[in-house]
Amino acid sequence: MDIKLASRVEQLPPYLFARISELIAQKRSEGVDVISLGIGDPDLPTPQHILDSLIEGVGKPEHHRYPESDGLPELRAAIARWYKKRHDVDLDRDTEIVPLIGSKEGIGHLPLCLLDTGDVSLITDPGYPVYEIGTMFAGGVNVRLPLYEQNGWLPDLSQISAEDANRAKILWLNYPNNPTGAVADLGFFERAIEWASENEVVIAHDLAYADVTFDGYVAPSIMEVQGARDVAIEFNSLSKTFNMTGWRVGMAVGNSKVIDALTRIKTNLDSGIPQAIQEMAITALDDPRDSIEAHNDIYTSRRDRTVAVLRELGLTLDVPAASLYVWAKLPSGESSSADYAGRLIEETGVVVTPGASYGEFGEGYIRISLTTPDDKLDEALRRLREFAMGS
Ligand SMILES: *Cc1c(COP(=O)(O)O)cnc(C)c1O
């Protein structure tokens, strides 16, 4: 039988950089020790006291049964305490918070809450691909807001046409930003909330990198803006903050009507986060910030070593104040990020991500991740430096 797949599956974008995967495979087969600076997944382990709490939770029989989709009330309370302590924001634990099986789960499901067929999601380009795909799965239409270096990689909301604004139901924002490493201040969030209220659009802010920050920078939550909860929800995650990508714990907070809708969608699709992992999350959130600061010191040192070498290669960049990434502009004369990345693999065995994989406005840039163990990173940087001297 020739199985015919649904168009939403057929429409999934093909893997753009098949050629780069081929190159990696070829280099490996030649015995080259290929080092990837492409992946945004913390290499450092989850702190031990957080793991201990999971181990303890595993032994409790009440955790062996179905969890509730909306999470343990104790976890929602811990999330409320975190927002109070970290952002001085008061959230109602019963109506303004829902834990997620990683924030990606909620990001992917939110469009099902807000979009009818043909409704618009405003997504930034370059951007995290899940916003776009979630919209497509819900039968919505993506309208891309270009991000430019000269605007600090913030979207210019005044450029959104009246027609797009009319059809839009969601505006996606993500600061500190993946892939650009850009940050936004409260003034930007205030303007975005004003625009969203005027146009009756829900803002979905993705704060995955809230606590991966350097040099004393403190990233704001959009919820810090007066009136934010009338129009906005925010996704947050333990993944990058506590090196917990493997445990799958995130959250959505903010507008109670949207949180309720997301909870109802989830009740019909999943049965929540395993409870022992919820207990582990409570331990993480109630923790002093020591482990966060220690991780950020490591990332800061990696960032600085990386920036120095990228500059030797003739790439230009703004030193990021947050996120796990350095976003760098190709040397003059280079226009294709995929070609440039391909050449680096070819010549050095080092993998970077072509900016074009995050959208057409990411072309001309590459993204380097800071989540490679120090010895591997230093070896990669040594090879890149050698390449810079040879070219
Ligand atoms: C890593 C990441 C996430 C989410 O991660 P989860 O592990 O699903 O919580 C969300 N948004 C961005 C932009 C990310 O880079």
State the gist of this model.
This protein has helices at 7-10, 18-29, 48-58, 73-87, 103-114, 129-137, 162-167, 186-199, 228-231, 238-241, 256-267, 275-285, 290-312, 337-348, 374-390; strands spanning 35-36, 97-100, 120-125, 141-146, 168-173, 202-206, 232-237, 250-254, 316-317, 325-329, 350-351, 353-354, 365-369. It is α/β, with parallel strands linked by helices. It has a seven-stranded mixed beta sheet with strand order 2-8-7-6-5-3-4, with helices on both faces. Strands 9-10-13-12 form a four-stranded antiparallel beta sheet, covered by helices on one side.
Write the topology of this structure:
Elements: H1 7-10, H2 18-29, E1 35-36, H3 48-58, H4 73-87, E2 97-100, H5 103-114, E3 120-125, H6 129-137, E4 141-146, H7 162-167, E5 168-173, H8 186-199, E6 202-206, H9 228-231, E7 232-237, H10 238-241, E8 250-254, H11 256-267, H12 275-285, H13 290-312, E9 316-317, E10 325-329, H14 337-348, E11 350-351, E12 353-354, E13 365-369, H15 374-390
Parallel strand pairs: 1-11, 3-4, 3-5, 5-6, 6-7
Antiparallel strand pairs: 2-8, 7-8, 9-10, 10-13, 12-13
Helix pairs in contact: 2-14, 3-12, 4-12, 5-6, 5-11, 13-15
Bound molecules: pyridoxal-5'-phosphate (PLP).
Pyridoxal-5'-phosphate binds next to helix 5 and helix 10.
Class computed from helices, strands and strand pairing: alpha/beta
- Gross CATH architecture of the largest domain: 3-Layer(aba) Sandwich
Sum up the overall morphology in one term. Answer: globular
- CATH fold-type name of the largest domain: Aspartate Aminotransferase, domain 2
Roughly how many Å is the radius of gyration?
21 Å
As laid out across the biggest beta sheet, the strand order is 2-8-7-6-5-3-4
Q: Briefly, what CATH class of the largest domain? A: Alpha Beta
